[in-house]
Amino acid sequence: MNLTIADAKSAARALRRSLSATGITIGHSQALELVAQQLGFGDWNTAAAALNAERSGSGPAVPVLRIQDEQLARDFYLDYLGFDTEWEHRYETGWPLYTRIRRGDTVLDLSEHHGDGTPGTVAWVPVQNIRAFHAEVSARPHPRLRPGIDSTAPGGPTMEVTDPWGNVLRFCEPVS
Known about the structure:
Blueprint: H1 5-21, H2 28-38, H3 44-56, E1 64-66, H4 70-80, E2 84-89, E3 98-103, E4 106-111, E5 122-126, H5 130-138, E6 149-150, E7 158-162, E8 168-172
């Protein structure tokens, strides 16, 4: 369920407004109870606890990969692998870059800051269709890379690429 407590309370307000327009008046707590029942909970307290638990759960991990040259990182991650920049941060002009990149559901942080990440890190990245991804990347040749697909890799067919700092990305089409 992707609803939050704020969503449920908003639904209760909308319910009260809709009913009021037809001449029916109910209190906010009664509207909350009705919304909770519509969501499949026995009462509002149970719904609130469940919605709070879902919201406070952890999300996917975001690997931080150490980079040492901004332009090389852009060439590799954006131009070659097809990631997009979500945001960038520097404390001041000319200082080290910290950036978040995304490709579909895959999110990576890249950092020029000493101590962030360790060159040589390995990240396992699930993909829906490894052959389509391989064809896309192969259409943008890289001067140092000609990745293939290892169909015998544990977990499923895998394409492995190494960035200019020795970080390894294992793109894998998981088998169930």
